[in-house]
Amino acid sequence: MSAFWPGRRVMVTGGGGFLGSAVVARLRTAGATDVFVPRSQDYDLRTMDGVDRALAAGRPNLVIHLAAVVGGIGANLGNPGRFFYDNAIMGIQLMEAARLALVDKFVQIGTVCSYPKFTPVPFREEDLWNGYPEETNAPYGLAKKMLLVQAQAYRAQYGFDTIYLIPVNLYGPGDNVDPSNSHVIPALIRKCVEAREAGADHIDVWGTGAASREFLYVDDAAEGIVLAAERYDGAEPVNLGVGAEITIRDLVTLIARLTRFEGELRWETSKPDGQPRRVLDTSRARECFGFVAETSFEDGLRRSIEWYEVIRPHGA
Question: What's the CATH number of domain 9-171+215-243+278-294, 3.40.50.620, 3.40.50.700, 2.70.70.10, 3.40.50.720?
Fold first, then answer.
């Protein structure tokens, strides 16, 4: 519980989604009693009408903007225009409307995909502008990065308290497992479980396995966002992560072991790896608002697999 949240009206866009559900749950634990989640079927945040109606309905003192159009490498390659436009227009219009509505604070969630393709590791926030993002997800990453520019410009000109957070790749129970647009961990969990059930002797995996990624458990990400919303008031972007990386090859091997899939791992080396390495410097989050991720990677994976084993179509 925190004295900050009781009596404060909070609007969480994307609050019914994977990360959003965790953020709403964490807000309630922290003491927030008035949380409004505008559903996409009722409020199209790509339109000013939808944005204005959502703000009128929620009357928020604080907005946490999580709503996004996202996906893995394949989804990014297939929808670069949609991923750019939808993500940019939602954030730009919502931030402007929130300013005009005299919202006290705006929390914008960015993406690790905004970092340059060859960022030195660990990624430091100061390196965001030192190159072009990895090509497969550049439109999405750049759309999100424009919202950092907007946040800093609005803080400078209007004194609008807008903060910008950059979570690394997320995972955990409740993730999207649709193979057409899921991210790497849920996609691999589903693939390994289905192959085990079918008695398959192998699975095919995109890329060479040489690329590395950092993964943040969804409940830890929610904790970081809520802490930042409460405690951080600064113009500089802040990474949210754990500060450790794993190669995709080691990740696939680990998920295969935890899902009890014993077949061969076949690498489709003609498919893209994405960004070569991805691991964040998380010192700013620790120093500015005391965030340190607590869930061990293997524990988080076990919870994710246990969740999928329950919700999956059995016999598939």
Answer: 3.40.50.720
